[in-house]
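TICKET: design request
STATUS: open
ATTACHED STRUCTURE:
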């Protein structure tokens, strides 16, 4: 265990690494504890169970993201401004937290019910309002004003999330396909954001 570092933080970081590589089922508690430099007794003291640890890993990240998304939805902005800002939010967040994408994708494939149940409870913990309803109301208003060409909030958010997140999973395949290494630099991510914004505006704005 590193000196002057909260053991709980070290356990969460180790658990994120384990769960994002092997999933909830494959992430063994003894390995997580060993990587964190603690014993299993300390891990169970803080988190009580492997499922409790998994939930806390998700909560520690989504409790940062969800309020940012809610704040964007609450802003009285035009669809154009929203479509410029929301990709920057998502891509910026997942650039800083790439393991979260792997963790969610892997565990949705192996334990979809567990992940969906945990995500639902996290939404209730982090925000008192119904996020999907807030998005639906905003999109319905814009559509009624003739400001959007589409009016299905679920399809719109699927498109936004897909464009903003899939790259982080597909990056190794893209590098192989184009025979080049994608640089981890601001210039590349600015181009990625601009490309996503352009596609969304082209498809959604009249």
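STATUS: resolved
RESOLUTION: sequence designed for all positions
ATTACHED SEQUENCE:
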């Amino acid at each position: 265990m590193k000196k002057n570092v909260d053991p709980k933080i070290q356990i969460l970081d180790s658990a994120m690494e384990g769960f994002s590589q092997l999933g909830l089922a494959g992430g063994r508690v003894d390995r997580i504890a060993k990587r964190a430099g603690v014993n299993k007794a300390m891990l169970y003291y803080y988190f009580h169970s492997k499922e409790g640890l998994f939930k806390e890993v998700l909560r520690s990240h989504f409790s940062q993201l969800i309020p940012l998304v809610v704040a964007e939805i609450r802003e009285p902005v035009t669809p154009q401004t929203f479509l410029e800002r929301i990709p920057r939010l998502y891509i910026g967040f997942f650039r800083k937290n790439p393991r979260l994408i792997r963790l969610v994708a892997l565990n949705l494939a192996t334990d979809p019910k567990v992940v969906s149940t945990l995500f639902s409870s996290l939404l209730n913990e982090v925000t008192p309002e119904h996020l999907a309803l807030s998005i639906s109301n905003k999109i319905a208003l814009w559509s009624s004003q003739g400001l959007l060409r589409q009016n299905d909030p679920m399809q719109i958010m699927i498109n936004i999330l897909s464009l903003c997140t899939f790259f982080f999973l597909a990056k190794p395949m893209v590098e192989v396909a184009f025979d080049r290494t994608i640089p981890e630099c601001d210039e590349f991510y600015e181009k990625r954001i601009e490309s996503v914004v352009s596609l969304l505006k082209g498809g959604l704005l009249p």
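CLOSING REMARK: The chain has ten helices and no strands. The radius of gyration is 19 Å.
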